[in-house]
Amino acid sequence: MDLTALDDLSQDELWDARAAAAYDTPGTGMFAAEVLGPTVDRLAELADDGAALEFAIGTGRVAIPLAERGVPVTGIESSAAMIERLRDKVDERALPVVQGDMATTRVEGEFSLAFLVFNTIANLLTQEEQVECFRNAAAHLRPGGRFVIELWVPDLRGTSRAAPAQVFTVADGYVGLDAVDMVNQRVVSHHFRFDRDPADRRRATLGRTPHRYIWPAELDLMARLAGMELESRHADWSGGEFTAESGSHVSVYRLVDA
């Protein structure tokens, strides 16, 4: 199965105006209070009275409530449409954002915290870009500063040569499946959304997003290459124990003092 067809699309093309308009789901999903609350609580604690830098800030799901907690936040975001959506909520003075690639774009200032949430480091489709993302985070941090990554744990137990795709979600009006390329650690997520009109439930739209999945141990090595070391790893933002059965993790890396 050829999973490289989407590689030529920029993040700005993938996260266009249509995707940005549909991204926010106030009160539900990743915007639910029980999801967002512990995330902001933990990041505010890790900021340690310093400033924070969010890579792939999107529409401000995490950054806006974090800034409202008194943490100065700056963002990097590649998608102009996502930035425009964020600007509908908060202005540049309250939450400055630089448009650019999270692996290479630099912003002014020194930060006690950099963070990258909701699996977004996997949007970088090569190992080299992911390593550069760690190095970019390290370049922005003060000595002892932290880089936090939230990421899913690949589960390839249901994938085989005979069945190179696996379903990851079935819900009302939605089916999601991943097509997996184990040689290149690539996944293309296929999002089938069905018309909610009872008269036409047979109609569906398809969206696709490419990712490069990363094992936790590989992340740890990327951190070491950037001069950071693992400080903690939990299964969630509330500090749940990370085990072999955990489907995701929140990993905190500390910049080693020179």
UniProtKB/TrEMBL annotation:
BP term (GO), one: methylation
Gene3D superfamilies membership: Vaccinia Virus protein VP39 (3.40.50.150)
Signal peptide range in chain numbering: none
Record InterPro entries: Methyltransf_25, SAM-dependent_MTases_sf
CDD domains on file: AdoMet_MTases
GO MF annotation: an example: methyltransferase activity
Name the record gives this protein: Class I SAM-dependent methyltransferase
Domain Methyltransferase, chain residue ranges per copy: 53-145
Key words of the record: Methyltransferase, Transferase
Domain of life (superkingdom): Bacteria
